[in-house]
Amino acid sequence: MISVGDKLDPRTVTNLDGDAVPIPDPNNRLHLQFRRHAGCPICNTHLHSVTQRLDEIKAAGIREVVFFHSSAEQLRAHQVALPYDVIPDPERRVYGEFGVEKSWRSILTPKILASVGAGFAQQRGKGTLGTLTESHLGMPADFLIDTDGTVLAVKYGEHGADQWSVDELLAFAQA
Which of the following CATH numbers is that of domain 29-174: 3.40.30.10, 3.40.50.2300, 1.20.1510.10, 3.40.640.10? Predict the structure, then answer.
């Protein structure tokens, strides 16, 4: 697992458009989000809130990078309109490097029911909610990474709907 104060080795990942995304970013702090599968209603609800407040996030000097443990094909069907870098990681390699796990806790908690309902409502009429080959047991995680690779803040979710709110992210950015 990664902890506050750790320094990440530089790496490059590839987004859905085929563009290289450096981690760390030499010009902006990075908010690395590890979400679940491409059609995850919980993730879609959360990412909608991030998108609505993206101007505030950018004004705080933060670049959003969102990982999914789905294939690029699945992500293009669900997440191509997101206004930030979306990274497919179907083999969960980067998830493993960051210690982001799978667990039954991701779906077996009462708190996720409201998020699931809201997410299903948003997805209505937009196609499928993922495939049976994608794991629905992925846990979320958030990392705020400084330009030199120093980890400023970390959250490993305890269930599928446990991630930073935009307000929490902005508070970490100010600290």
Answer: 3.40.30.10
